[in-house]
Amino acid sequence: MVKHAPIKVDMEKIVSLCRRRGFIFPSSEIYGGLSSCWDYGPLGVELKRNIKEAWWRAVVQERDDMIGLDASILMHPQTWAASGHLKGFTDPLAECKSCHQRWRVDDLAGNSCPDCGGELTEPRLFNLMFKTFMGPIEDEASIVYLRPETAQGIFVNFQNVLNTTRKRLPFGIAQIGKAFRNEITTGNFIFRSREFEQMEIEFFVKPGTDEEWFNYWLEERLNWYIKLGIKKENLKLRQHMKKELAHYARECYDIEYLFPMGWAELEGIANRADFDLTQHANSSAKSLEYFDDETKEHFIPYVIEPSAGVDRSALAFLCDAYDEEPDKEEIRVLLHLHPALAPIKVAVLPLSRREKLVAAAKQIYAELRQCWMVSYDDAQSIGRRYRRQDEIGTPFCVTIDFQSLEDEQVTIRERDTMNQIRIPIKELRTTLAAKLSGEELFVLPPGGKIWKEGESV
Ligand code: ATP
After folding, report:
1. CA of 107 to the centre of ligand 1 (A)
2. What is the dihedral of CA 180, 181, 182, 184, to 10 degrees?
């Protein structure tokens, strides 16, 4: 719940919060960092796991027409010839004749270097795939590539999945995994990096039903971000123009988010028709056809591909959740993260470091850890400890005070409203579970009451 006009989020504040609180660090920082690679710290790794978990839950666990896969990053090099990546996975680049920086032609407004104003060469094609060698000999025959997308691992396993699961159309295969692209222009923090993670679905349908399924997935995927807390007004769908479309794609939309640097792609949803399966069938000389038992027809299914980035989603969730509120003479920085995404769900805070309080608090901490990621903090004033939790998006703080030792009750404080309730310790686990699933704070368990700031001291 935001009590004031939305603030304008700038990227520097997000980067600084991520660095300061241990969400994201530059890669290999002690050696000066590695350009456009990022390490997720203790809180970042939880955020990322929660995003992947929420996606998997929505697109695999809760559906009966989807299954998962985890293909390897290194694939047979012929995969990339068949998919068109070896030939076509390139962006035309122009190099500056004076500072030698290379620029994507799409990013250039004029004919001079945006950095130093130097003259640019004619655009050339460079392949964005990272190359390496398989085995001890570094020659042409042992070249393999780090996959630039996870999708091809799904297409090459289409028959395996069909044979082993006996799924019938329409059905989809989902995969989460690392992808690598030797991007020319990187930047905007984790928005565009050279190593990133994708969450991709290939949804196979009968030709002729593809448009209907395309529209279905557009809506489904847009709603996923909204359900997890992204403000509707910060999301939009952008249809690809004819000239932007890959030659095989029938239709493509980007889900765009209003990042601090402007509107940019969060996820792409494309109708790829039968292009990929046909290419792999021709290239491998294996049939990738589907047999329809009802109509007795053999055909190659069409595919709808919703392709999202874990890192871009993390950035969008962080930017959208970031907030600053006036707080007496200071500013309260907080992340309104959805409880499903918050790295830490509950913080356990003893009011002081007195031995008896600490022992009671540690017992509660140990119990709650069985259910969720929980943190324990007894350093500095309670106000400061609340602020520290607000800043990392912890939805609830549980405070143990002296009275708790007598009445076996604790207070729960809600991050967004700062409202508090006081409830019996024996109700804590079920109450927190209900609140984390979205129950109103003031719906009270037996023996619970609304609590006013300061009453517990
Ligand atoms: P862009 O036009 O921004 O380069 P793209 O259209 O090439 O993206 P896709 O190939 O559609 O991207 O990849 C699907 C998703 O993977 C993107 O929507 C994005 O979330 C993520 N993604 C792609 N490239 C990167 C990258 N370099 N860094 C981080 N995420 C990426």
Report:
1. 15
2. -140
